[in-house]
Amino acid sequence: MSDPRVPDPDGVWLGLDLGAGHARCAAVDGTGRLLATAVRPLTGRRTGKRHEQDPEQWWTALSAACREALAGLDPRRIRGLALAATSGTILLADADGTPLTPGLMYDDGRAAEQAVAVDEAGGALWRQLGYGTMPATWALPRLRWLLDQPSGREAVAAKGVRLLHQADLITWRLAGHQVASDSSHALKTGYHLIEERWPDEVLDRLDVPEGLLPDVVRPGTVLGTVCAAAAGATGIPEGTAVIAGMTDGCAAQIGAGALAPGAWHLLLGTTFAVKGSSPHLVRDPAGVVHCHRAPGGNWLPGGASGSGAGVISPYFHGANLDALTERAAALDPDAIVYPLVSTDGESFPFRAPDAEPFLLGEVPHRAAEFHAYLLGAVCLERLSFDYLDLLGAPVDGSLTATGEGTRNPYWCRLRADVLGRSVHLPEQSGSALGMAVLAATSAGIGLDEAAAAMVRPGEEIRPRAARTARYLPAYLRFIDELTRRGWLAEAVADHARDRAGR
After folding, report:
1. Is the pLDDT of residue 1 over 60?
2. Which of 118, 142, 402, 427 is geometrically suited to a Cys-Cys bond with 456, CB 3.0 to 4.6 A?
3. In this structure, are 105 and 242 located in the same domain?
4. What pLDDT score was predicted for residue 270?
5. What is the pLDDT of residues 99-157, one digit of tens each?
């Protein structure tokens, strides 16, 4: 007889993931074993601050990935699915769910003027919700931008037009009718996460038409089941439960198992993101940290940087990175490069639109320069935890790291040493895995229990006290330089120095 407190080991849950450049399907059993996975590319259009994708491509690419992944599986084992998508990507659709506009992607920045109006209308509420202001890349300013365009005005004049988040279009197609959005994808559209409702008083000031926004439920809620038409397109059995998902960053956090209060997930890819768990809402006057709400009610604070491993490819294109790593580790230099990737400045752990890369120290050869980039990324991660601690977020729990940066063992070791804390590298991770774990909760199992059963622990890298002390002066020089340039507030720098001295 199976244990009702853990997922059925013979059951299969599907994690669907729409990233900026891919559509993925992963099939995972109740022990966390990856049975099958498939991915299809997504393409978009970028011009200046414009970034759009064809919403129909999301469905066709994801359907193809599902068909491939499920081709060899027993359909009787498949119990449910959940979907992650990019945070803040939106479109307008008609009453039948047919897109009327392109998908405005998560980083489309054309709504600067509308962001000012959004903050004037709802600034008090945004501060209450912890993030202070709404950047132009958030969904509500871009919704107002859509409504200000001739095509948007024409669209809302028609009866039954809806605002959909990226995930909403897919769940509509899967169920065969519109279903509720989840509060994670709705966050950047202004959803009131404390009172769990749309802030009608703010939306009225912004002239957002009544009935435009979807109903909203918490992640983990069963939305419906896969309809016959969707089963034919995707290969997912008709009647499979469709569970409300979360944004890709939250999904990756679940996939890493970083759910206990004080636990944190570091995702180091082209840029890096930090996501943690807190029993209370973490409010950030500077607006670089915002909180999602977990299915059980905990808060998930985090931030996304404009810096990260994306600096490596352009500066070391064609280089043998393994050889550079080996030589850099032997030399052990302490120069730092601030590894900014974004051309729009920094967004976390401080906001500085005018930020640009810089070098501290001497880099007499390529290996030293390479090491300086690695060290700069890790110093920025350490600053992130100093800032989160200043805001009152619990930061003393376990630390899990995933992403492209974890493929370099020396970089992982450097991270543990500079941070002065153990770093866990799970056996497998990712947004699709996180959504399979969330889907497994539909059987009445708690998210923590599902993650404990399905997220497989991997290697633990422990810090070496002597190495932590070795890099502390370099970290403090980095803090001093950020402060000198006017990017880092004195209060944040002082707190970082104070924590370093403890």
Report:
1. no
2. 427
3. yes
4. 86
5. 999 999 998 999 999 999 999 999 999 999 999 899 999 999 999 999 999 877 777 77
> Could you give the CA distance from residue 32 to residue 426 in angstroms, rounded to a whole number?
12
Kindly state whether residues 223 and 84 are assigned to the same domain. Answer: yes
Helix (H/G/I), strand (E/B), else coil: 465: helix
Assess contact for 487 and 63: CB atoms under 8 A: no
Q: Compute the distance between CA of residue 389 and CA of residue 499 in angstroms, rounded to an integer.
A: 9
Sign of CA dihedral 23, 28, 32, 34: negative
Q: Note whether 211 and 283 are same-domain residues.
A: no
- Given a contact cutoff of 8 angstroms between Cβ atoms, the answer to whether 27 and 454 are in contact is no
Euclidean distance between CA atoms 343 and 283, whole angstroms: 27
Q: 162 pLDDT exceeds 70?
A: yes
Residues in a beta bridge with 351: none
- Nearest alpha-carbon partner for 145 in 125, 123, 115, 102: 115
Alpha carbon distance 162, 93 (integer Å)? 5
pLDDT number for residue 337: 96
Question: Which amino acid makes up residue 6?
Answer: V
Q: Do 214 and 318 sit in the same domain of this protein?
A: no
Residue 37 token pair:
């996975």
Domain stop point among 196, 227, 248: 248
**Short-list 241, 230, 228, 222, CA closest to 78:** 241
Residues 213 and 326 both lie in one domain: no
